[in-house]
Write a structure and sequence with these properties.
204 residues, 7-stranded mixed β-sheet, 30% helix
């Protein structure tokens, strides 16, 4: 079964390919099919992911999968949320993971409530008009550290301390991180939904 991934992020593609491969699902990056990126005008992960999935399905004629993810900080009322990728630019930094981390730590100086969640929302549609999209949400809850720790992973991994492991995501082996990350948890839910809703016999 072929699915178009409504993203051109190579890291995201590799992570999801590894999770979906055992069921025989091949993910095609939308850029490989000449599909332009969709607009993401909404304020929630699920609305943006749905818009991206419908856009990719419309242009490809194939079922599509989209992910919208970000960091939700309790002390900031859930922000930066859908603006996570551009978080640093709000404070005069260039766009980029390292700058996002630097900006976040600067904004959290003196803040004692450091709970935050990395959230991934996956949406899959069989067609652009699919009235029942599959929606899976994965959350990884932790504490924002005072300084980066660890050199594995990307994004906010070095400052996301996960109490159940006693380490940041950037300190964990890749396979452990992927299995317990927000995206890994969402993907596991999505696979189960596909088995139940799209594949009534329970297999491909």
């Amino acid at each position: 079964m072929k699915l178009v991934l409504a993203s051109n992020n190579q890291g995201k593609l590799a992570e999801l390919q590894a999770l979906f491969a055992p069921l025989g699902i091949a993910l095609l990056r939308q850029g490989e099919l000449g599909i332009p990126e969709a607009a993401e005008p909404f304020r929630t992960f699920v609305e943006n992911a749905l818009a991206k999935a419908r856009h990719a399905a419309q242009h490809s004629g194939l079922p599509a999968l989209a992910d919208d993810a970000g960091l939700c900080v309790d002390a900031f009322g859930g922000l930066p949320g859908v603006d996570t990728a551009y978080y640093a630019t709000q404070f005069g930094y260039p766009k980029g993971d390292d700058h996002n981390v630097r900006a976040l730590l600067a904004q959290m100086q003196g803040v004692t409530q450091r709970r935050a969640a990395l959230v991934s929302t996956l949406v899959a549609v069989r067609s652009p008009e699919d009235p029942e999209p599959l929606i899976a949400v994965g959350r990884a809850v932790g504490q924002i550290t005072e300084a980066p720790v660890g050199d594995n992973g990307f994004g906010f991994d070095p400052v996301m301390f996960i109490p159940e492991f006693g380490q940041t995501f950037a300190q964990l082996p890749t396979e452990v991180k992927n299995a317990n990350s927000h995206r890994g948890r969402a993907a596991q839910q999505m696979l189960q939904l596909m088995r139940e809703r799209w594949l009534p016999e329970g297999g491909l």
